Design the sequence.
């Protein structure tokens, strides 16, 4: 960002001159996003001015509304596509197992396709976040969308399991990573006082997307084969993400220069959050992946009933992200609410899931547990933005997700292996206990901020 002449800017000249040759100005400019930036420049008496340290340009306060709601909608649609499709993998998995599509592949092996997609999203998080900060959100959303569409179309031609691993697993996960981290960071640029509820509304798209896609995929798999199901979903992605790319707008422009900021790794609170996310992700996705199979195999439900349970589970996740976001903004505080969400989720898995013995009971468990576990996903960007600032949020969230990739990759396959060897209840204990460990780590962060038990933080 540079100015050739003060006549091109709306500027106010400072009366202070250093050594009678340096002029300091404060001025407001608009970049290609039409968002005003308040900047500072230094010049000399010749009339030529240059912006001083554009990396530290001071933004005007977030509007907490206005076009921000359009941005929230764009982020919402991206979550519907990226995470909604991933959360519906359990329906594909149940279909492939029942139809023996890939010649006797076991549940732990088949579950790795869904795990690979989610794990790749996490694993490339640090890179995706940094690329978004450097090249712009719209660019990364476009690349990610093309990869997602291509992965689904290519997966529709799969004849071996490794074809799905490369396409619906790795390629879909890579495209999701490029699209997700810009989308998850957008609401925090536009909201401050209502940041939790705005982020929760945007991220509720993953739950609503999971609800919708679980039903749609379940119906399509019954009426057409899985190949045409994937092609139809790819068309939906192409249309939806085109709308998102048109509407998206940022307040913080890309950083064309500069490398990765490693100073945050010296911050104990950030390190604790990284380890907390690692343990939490070992258990977080287990209900989403295994509830349909549990209903079909353990309770004798139909495939349609299993997919409906997954839909209601995703709907509970969507509702929790909005309601709990409102509670965080107005009553409890961000870190407190995140702690409540994770603790309640662990209790549900340990004390409720083992005793589900009917369709209605399993349906209720899926909704309530996901209502609280959804808060884990929606509150993390809000907590990180509050502790470490909005400007680095894409790369910080990416770093957090990259660290969590180990838990995401290993969590579901380990649970599947436990189910095969020991049964369902040990797998439930495994998921719940790992979540409890993450709660203790989060409490450490909370008490580093304040020792007051009833403080709103």
Sequence:
């Amino acid at each position: 960002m540079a100015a050739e002449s003060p006549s091109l800017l709306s500027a106010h000249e400072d009366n202070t001159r250093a050594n009678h040759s340096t002029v300091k100005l404060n001025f407001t400019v608009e970049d290609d996003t039409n968002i005003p930036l308040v900047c500072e420049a230094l010049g000399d008496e010749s009339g030529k001015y240059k912006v001083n340290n554009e990396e530290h340009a001071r933004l005007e306060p977030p509007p907490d509304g206005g076009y921000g709601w359009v941005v929230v909608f764009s982020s919402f649609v991206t979550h519907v596509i990226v995470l909604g499709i991933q959360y519906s993998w359990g329906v594909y998995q149940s279909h492939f197992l029942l139809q023996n599509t890939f010649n006797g592949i076991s549940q732990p092996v088949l579950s790795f396709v869904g795990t690979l997609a989610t794990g790749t999203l996490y694993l490339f998080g640090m890179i995706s976040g940094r690329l978004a900060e450097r090249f712009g959100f719209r660019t990364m959303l476009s690349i990610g969308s093309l990869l997602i569409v291509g992965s689904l179309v290519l997966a529709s031609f799969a004849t071996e399991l490794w074809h799905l691993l490369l396409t619906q697993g790795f390629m879909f996960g890579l495209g999701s990573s490029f699209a997700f981290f810009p989308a998850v960071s957008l609401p925090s640029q536009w909201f401050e006082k209502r940041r939790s509820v705005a982020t929760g509304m945007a991220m509720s798209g993953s739950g609503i997307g999971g609800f919708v896609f679980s039903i749609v995929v379940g119906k399509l798999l019954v009426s057409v084969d899985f190949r045409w199901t994937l092609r139809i979903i790819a068309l939906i992605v192409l249309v939806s993400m085109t709308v998102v790319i048109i509407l998206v707008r940022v307040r913080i422009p890309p950083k064309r220069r500069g490398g990765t900021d490693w100073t945050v790794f010296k911050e104990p609170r950030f390190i604790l959050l990284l380890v907390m996310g690692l343990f939490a992700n070992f258990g977080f996705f287990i209900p989403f992946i295994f509830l349909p199979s549990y209903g079909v195999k353990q309770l004798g439900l139909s495939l349609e009933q299993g997919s409906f349970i997954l839909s209601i589970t995703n709907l509970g996740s969507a509702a929790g992200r909005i309601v709990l976001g409102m509670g965080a903004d107005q009553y409890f505080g961000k870190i407190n609410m995140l702690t409540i969400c994770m603790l309640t989720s662990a209790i549900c898995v340990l004390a409720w899931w083992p005793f589900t013995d009917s369709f209605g009971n399993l349906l209720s468990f899926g909704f309530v547990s996901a209502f609280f576990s959804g808060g884990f996903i929606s509150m993390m960007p809000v907590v990180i933005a509050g502790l470490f600032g909005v400007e680095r949020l894409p790369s910080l969230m990416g770093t957090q997700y990259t660290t969590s990739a180990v838990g995401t990759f290993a969590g579901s396959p380990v649970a599947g292996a436990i189910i095969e060897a020991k049964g369902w209840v040990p797998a439930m204990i495994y998921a719940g206990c790992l979540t409890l460990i993450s709660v203790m780590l989060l409490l450490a962060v909370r008490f580093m901020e304040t020792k007051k038990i009833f403080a709103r933080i």
Q: What stands out?
A: Confidence is low (pLDDT under 50) at residues 1-58. The two ends are 38 Å apart (CA to CA). The chain has 15 helices and five strands. The CA atoms of residues 124 and 402 lie 6 Å apart.
